[in-house]
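Assemble and predict.
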Amino acid sequence: MLKVYQQTLNKTVAFKGIGLHSGKISSVKILPGQSDKGIVFKRIDLKKNNEIQANFKFVVQGKLCTTLENDYGVKVSTVEHLLAAFYISEIDNAIVEIDNEEVPIMDGSSRDFIKLLEDAGLKQLNRKRRYLKIIEKTEFEDHGKYISIQESKNDFEVGFQLSYKNKLIGNQKNMINFSKDNLDSIYQSRTFCLFEDIEKIKKLGLAKGGSLDNAVVIKDEQILNENGLRNKKEFVNHKILDLSGDFFLSGFRILGKVNCFQGGHQLSNIFLRKLLNNKSSFKVIQLDEILVPNKNIVFKPVKAAVNA
Ligand SMILES: [Zn+2]
């Protein structure tokens, strides 16, 4: 349901784990945040210039994960599954203290983060939430990859299609309405890779912390993980999870319908820059009264500066 007011978590939560790409162990604390501050990462292993705003403008590398870097060269990587958890848990503001460069991969999905945030509970803040309501279609194509967004009623909907030569993945597609559908199979879906790509990825110095405990590995038509898949569409569902985390970097909750073919972190970031630059394609709004589900929804445009 659409919330009128911004929210944060009710108490501090903590966890630790290995980084998928760095292979380093990080300890993380998530603290309640203030209205209008958004999600802020704080590298507590560094003494100064250690804050990094979770915003698309600070994305520096988006190939195999989403990395943020502030103006002083301080980075935090693999933020997407935690951001997706904030999105799904309806948290708008939080401070994420981390003592290393990469957010732990946990089980490769957002399941553990969502559980922690659920346990912490929600706290309503005194400022209203701002939504980005799409009013005109924007689309982008790049080397056979495609992404578009168009007007939706008052929901965030994501349609995604994958097309892999690998027969087990094949042409998997799904359409999810983040406000109305049950999202269990989305946030439980793990990151995945083809067995034959592991060597290539490792040669790039990545996936040092990768294992069958935090990624689905596919070899030909077989899943190498002992218990197989968590749901039939785990591959495309994970891509939808990634997209929700990456789109949360817009700084808003978006009301619009996304269609994506073969996308990933990089495409999502290029697209967000394009979308937020095209100011005639959206309105920034807030809700004006407490909502009765699907009734009496009153939108009020607000003046907001969006810097792309
Ligand atoms: Zn992912």
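The chain has two domains: 5-128, 131-301.
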